[in-house]
Every structure is written in C-alpha cells, then in structure tokens.
Amino acid sequence: MTEENTNIMTSSKIYIAQSKIPNAGRGVFAAIAINKGDVIEICPVFVLPRKDYKVIKQTALRNYYFMWGKVTVGVCFGFGSYYNHSYQANATYKKRIKEQLIDFVAIKDIKKDEEIIVNYNYGNPDDQNPLWIKEISAPKAEV
C-alpha cells in the first residue's frame, strides 16, 4: 500500500440500519446528504489466499465477499459488505486491487437517511444480468 492509504478512517457520512428491502437485513444509509461523485467510504480489503476461495464460497460469507482478481476473493471491512443490491443503484464501488481497497462512490445525489445501494454486478450500475445470489433476481422486463 502507498503511504497515503495506510491511514484509513471511518466515514461519518454513513450508518447501518435495518433495510427496507425485503429479506435484505441491514443496509448502509446516508447520515448526511451525499452529492453525486462524492466518495462515500474507502474500505480496506483482506485478500484471501487462493487456496481458501474454495472453502469460503461454501460458507455464509458467500454473499458478502468481493471477487478479487480472477482467482480469489476479498473480505471488505468498514461497512463495505453491508451495501445492498439494486438494479437502480445510487452508488457504485471501485476496487483498487494493488492497494487492497474498495471505494464506494455516489452516482446520484443521495438524501439524508436514504439507503445507499449498489449493483452487485461488479459495481456496473447498468448491468442488468442476473446475480449469483439466488434470493435476488433480475428485474422483469416490462410488457
């Protein structure tokens, strides 16, 4: 990691609360109004050794880690694993592989107390592909 990234602070912009998304559990909410383009949070990531990937994908953590490169995964600390999914996301995430960090960034203005949601499809807000999580499905096409 570079020297500038060794001091990671928690974000005062967010808090954890019960999500209004059915079956989602907890989610991340805006403690203040957040503007489009603002960094919401920078999360440190623990990258698992490649040999542990086969084990962790068979655990309850399966729905909480991020693919890290092509052959392993990272566990995101901070509130990073609590952002819920939506195909109408108001934020995205950007992985910084070398620094072992994930930046969560607003892609729309977010109101105070609004839930912050990302598209789980690699942070791409326009990707409508079905997810690997069975409880979450792709939106149905309008007729």
UniProtKB/TrEMBL annotation:
<dbReference type="InterPro" id="IPR046341">
    <property type="entry name" value="SET_dom_sf"/>
</dbReference>
<feature type="domain" description="SET">
    <location>
        <begin position="12"/>
        <end position="121"/>
    </location>
</feature>
<dbReference type="Pfam" id="PF00856">
    <property type="entry name" value="SET"/>
</dbReference>
<protein>
    <recommendedName>
        <fullName>SET domain-containing protein</fullName>
    </recommendedName>
</protein>
<dbReference type="GO" id="GO:0062122">
    <property type="term" value="F:histone H3K37 methyltransferase activity"/>
</dbReference>
<dbReference type="InterPro" id="IPR001214">
    <property type="entry name" value="SET_dom"/>
</dbReference>
<dbReference type="InterPro" id="IPR009207">
    <property type="entry name" value="SET7_MeTrfase"/>
</dbReference>
